[in-house]
Amino acid sequence: MIHFKNIRFYYPKGKTILDDISLDFVPGNIYGVFGKNGEGKSTLMKIVAGLLFPKSGKYHVMGEAMSRNTVKYLQHMFIVPEDFELPGIKISSYEHINSPFYPEFSREQFYELLKEFKLSPDEKISTLSFGQKKKVLIAFGVATNTKLLLMDEPTNGLDIPSKSQFRKIMASVVDQGKCVVISTHQIRDLHSLINHIVILDQSKVAFDQPLSTISECLWFGKTRRDSNESIIYSEASFGGKTILSRQDKDETEVDLELLFNAVLNEPVRISNAIKNTHHDSAV
Ligand SMILES: Nc1ncnc2c1ncn2[C@@H]1O[C@H](COP(=O)(O)OP(=O)(O)OP(=O)(O)O)[C@@H](O)[C@H]1O
């Protein structure tokens, strides 16, 4: 669906933000894009959304080479940006004005999602809190039923019950034809939702793996008595150490936060552990 090859981007007179980025976003997946502050996650999302253009490299969206004139695919994608402004009109009017642009938009689904988020279509957007406005945008984005849904920090501003509602809603909308890309720092909010992890570091793609490969190749848990040699990365935690080691037997739940820190601190060892386990299971 999205194919990036050797993408480079910098803002005018600025340093390179994204350097030699090659990535594929494939339908049927929910991607989590992670990185420290200022690593270029929002910039990457804006490039995918056609709001910014790479300085060099190849960029294909839905089978077409992207250019400033490629507007056709815009009705097949929706972005929930990190910061946004909505007009001070009623939610129902917002829907009425914007929905005709999206051929697969479902008003019924939009109203159902508003209900789940405890919002009424008669409410004026200007009277809503930031979190409530975000829910309007998330509900609208999901109801567009676009093939590509981009979300930048979608759970920022959502209260605790809304975060789990968000996960439930997102898990129910992804099918084989749809691709969701979520950029966030709230790793725990996305737990059990995303199935592919991308980590940006120092302007590059530091990690790009499906969750299934991560579980197959890496072990997450508390300190084990057996061989310390297999430990790749560890962190002090209550009552001992949380460790990430090379997988040798049982699959464990992926600890995204530990993985993120491990990728930033031990990129070569993580990459080797994945390569070697894959190689071992292939022979
Ligand atoms: N419009 C702009 N003009 C110039 N520089 C910009 C602009 N927008 C962002 N930047 C710079 O580009 C870099 C990447 O910003 P970006 O917002 O993509 O990072 P991010 O990973 O999303 O950060 P955060 O996690 O803090 O939201 C930062 O150094 C930022 O200062």
Automatic annotation (TrEMBL):
Instruction: Please provide the record's keywords in A-Z order.
Output: ATP-binding, Nucleotide-binding, Transport
- Keyword presence, ATP-binding: yes
PANTHER family assigned to the protein according to its UniProt record, in alphabetical order = ABC TRANSPORTER ATP-BINDING PROTEIN ALBC-RELATED
- Source species, please? Aquimarina algiphila
Q: Which PROSITE patterns match?
A: ABC_TRANSPORTER_2 (PS50893)
Q: Which residues form the ABC transporter domain?
A: 2-227
The protein's name: ABC transporter ATP-binding protein
Q: Does the keyword Nucleus apply?
A: no
Record's InterPro entries?
AAA+_ATPase, ABC_transporter-like_ATP-bd, ABC_Transporter_VariousFunc, P-loop_NTPase
